Protein backbone atom coordinates (compact mmCIF):
# COMPACT_ATOMS: atom_id res chain seq x y z
CA UNK A 1 0.00 0.00 0.00
CA UNK A 2 1.74 3.12 -1.19
CA UNK A 3 -0.17 5.52 1.08
CA UNK A 4 0.36 3.61 4.35
CA UNK A 5 3.72 5.22 5.09
CA UNK A 6 5.46 6.03 8.34
CA UNK A 7 3.77 8.93 10.12
CA UNK A 8 0.43 8.56 8.34
CA UNK A 9 -2.56 8.95 10.65
CA UNK A 10 -5.18 6.22 10.24
CA UNK A 11 -8.38 5.16 11.95
CA UNK A 12 -8.88 1.62 13.22
CA UNK A 13 -12.15 0.20 11.89
CA UNK A 14 -12.42 -3.13 13.71
CA UNK A 15 -12.01 -4.61 17.16
CA UNK A 16 -11.40 -3.18 20.58
CA UNK A 17 -9.94 0.09 19.31
CA UNK A 18 -12.44 0.69 16.51
CA UNK A 19 -12.82 4.40 15.82
CA UNK A 20 -9.55 5.32 17.52
CA UNK A 21 -6.89 7.33 15.73
CA UNK A 22 -3.44 5.83 15.29
CA UNK A 23 -0.17 6.85 13.71
CA UNK A 24 1.70 4.26 11.64
CA UNK A 25 5.17 3.58 13.03
CA UNK A 26 6.31 0.66 10.90
CA UNK A 27 4.37 -0.58 7.84
CA UNK A 28 4.98 -4.15 6.58
CA UNK A 29 3.56 -4.61 3.11
CA UNK A 30 4.65 -8.24 2.74
CA UNK A 31 3.83 -9.59 6.18
CA UNK A 32 6.13 -11.58 8.45
CA UNK A 33 6.40 -15.06 9.88
CA UNK A 34 4.32 -14.27 12.94
CA UNK A 35 1.78 -12.18 10.99
CA UNK A 36 1.58 -13.58 7.44
CA UNK A 37 -0.48 -10.69 6.07
CA UNK A 38 0.20 -7.02 5.29
CA UNK A 39 0.14 -5.16 8.58
CA UNK A 40 1.50 -2.15 10.41
CA UNK A 41 2.83 -1.38 13.87
CA UNK A 42 0.77 1.51 15.17
CA UNK A 43 0.62 3.74 18.22
CA UNK A 44 -2.74 5.24 19.02
CA UNK A 45 -4.84 6.96 21.64
CA UNK A 46 -7.05 4.78 23.82
CA UNK A 47 -8.28 7.68 25.96
CA UNK A 48 -8.29 11.15 24.47
CA UNK A 49 -7.53 14.27 26.51
CA UNK A 50 -10.58 16.04 27.98
CA UNK A 51 -11.56 19.56 27.11
CA UNK A 52 -9.53 22.27 28.79
CA UNK A 53 -10.72 25.85 29.33
CA UNK A 54 -8.91 28.95 30.50
CA UNK A 55 -10.64 29.29 33.85
CA UNK A 56 -9.51 25.84 35.05
CA UNK A 57 -6.66 25.68 37.53
CA UNK A 58 -3.23 24.60 36.29
CA UNK A 59 -3.49 21.28 38.14
CA UNK A 60 -6.85 20.53 36.58
CA UNK A 61 -5.55 21.44 33.13
CA UNK A 62 -2.61 19.03 33.41
CA UNK A 63 -4.91 16.28 34.69
CA UNK A 64 -7.31 16.75 31.80
CA UNK A 65 -4.63 16.79 29.14
CA UNK A 66 -3.40 13.28 29.93
CA UNK A 67 -3.39 10.74 27.09
CA UNK A 68 -3.70 6.97 27.40
CA UNK A 69 -1.84 5.36 24.49
CA UNK A 70 -1.78 1.86 23.02
CA UNK A 71 0.54 0.05 20.65
CA UNK A 72 -0.64 -2.69 18.34
CA UNK A 73 -0.05 -4.70 15.19
CA UNK A 74 -2.98 -4.09 12.85
CA UNK A 75 -3.95 -5.75 9.58
CA UNK A 76 -4.13 -3.25 6.70
CA UNK A 77 -7.75 -4.31 6.14
CA UNK A 78 -8.67 -2.75 9.49
CA UNK A 79 -6.93 0.57 8.88
CA UNK A 80 -8.51 3.55 7.18
CA UNK A 81 -5.82 6.07 6.23
CA UNK A 82 -6.54 9.79 6.53
CA UNK A 83 -4.98 12.77 4.82
CA UNK A 84 -3.13 13.72 8.00
CA UNK A 85 0.43 12.90 8.99
CA UNK A 86 2.21 13.11 12.32
CA UNK A 87 5.97 13.41 12.60
CA UNK A 88 7.12 11.24 15.49
CA UNK A 89 10.77 10.55 14.76
CA UNK A 90 11.50 9.37 18.29
CA UNK A 91 9.11 6.44 18.21
CA UNK A 92 10.62 4.51 15.31
CA UNK A 93 13.25 2.82 17.46
CA UNK A 94 10.99 2.46 20.49
CA UNK A 95 8.19 0.32 19.03
CA UNK A 96 9.51 -2.67 17.08
CA UNK A 97 8.40 -6.26 16.58
CA UNK A 98 10.45 -7.25 19.64
CA UNK A 99 8.48 -4.84 21.82
CA UNK A 100 5.53 -7.22 21.91
CA UNK A 101 7.49 -10.22 23.18
CA UNK A 102 7.66 -9.13 26.81
CA UNK A 103 5.18 -7.26 28.95
CA UNK A 104 7.83 -5.04 30.55
CA UNK A 105 9.16 -3.93 27.16
CA UNK A 106 5.62 -3.20 26.07
CA UNK A 107 4.98 -1.07 29.16
CA UNK A 108 8.21 0.89 28.61
CA UNK A 109 7.30 1.50 24.98
CA UNK A 110 3.85 2.69 26.02
CA UNK A 111 5.37 5.13 28.53
CA UNK A 112 7.62 6.58 25.84
CA UNK A 113 4.68 6.88 23.42
CA UNK A 114 2.62 8.54 26.16
CA UNK A 115 5.33 11.12 26.80
CA UNK A 116 5.75 11.86 23.09
CA UNK A 117 2.00 12.22 22.49
CA UNK A 118 1.46 14.41 25.55
CA UNK A 119 4.31 16.72 24.54
CA UNK A 120 2.81 16.95 21.07
CA UNK A 121 -0.60 17.75 22.58
CA UNK A 122 0.82 20.42 24.91
CA UNK A 123 2.60 22.14 22.02
CA UNK A 124 -0.77 22.58 20.30
CA UNK A 125 0.25 20.85 17.07
CA UNK A 126 -1.90 18.24 15.27
CA UNK A 127 -5.08 19.32 17.04
CA UNK A 128 -7.23 16.99 14.94
CA UNK A 129 -5.34 13.88 16.06
CA UNK A 130 -6.18 14.52 19.71
CA UNK A 131 -9.93 14.92 19.27
CA UNK A 132 -12.05 11.78 19.40
CA UNK A 133 -14.06 10.81 16.33
CA UNK A 134 -17.67 11.89 16.60
CA UNK A 135 -20.14 9.41 15.18
Automatic annotation (TrEMBL):
GO terms for biological process: translation. PANTHER family: 60S RIBOSOMAL PROTEIN L27. GO terms for molecular function: structural constituent of ribosome. Belongs to the eukaryotic ribosomal protein eL27 family. InterPro entries: Ribosomal_eL27 (IPR001141), Ribosomal_eL27_CS (IPR018262), Ribosomal_eL27_KOW (IPR041991), Ribosomal_eL27_sf (IPR038655), Translation_prot_SH3-like_sf (IPR008991). One of its GO terms (cellular component) is ribonucleoprotein complex. The keyword Ribonucleoprotein applies. It comes from the Eukaryota. This is 60S ribosomal protein L27. Keywords: Ribonucleoprotein, Ribosomal protein. The lineage of its organism: Eukaryota, Fungi, Dikarya, Ascomycota, Pezizomycotina.
Amino acid sequence: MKFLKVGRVAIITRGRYAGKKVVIIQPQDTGSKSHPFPHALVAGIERYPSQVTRRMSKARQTKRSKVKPFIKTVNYNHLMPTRYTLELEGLKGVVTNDTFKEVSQREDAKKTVKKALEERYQSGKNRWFFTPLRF
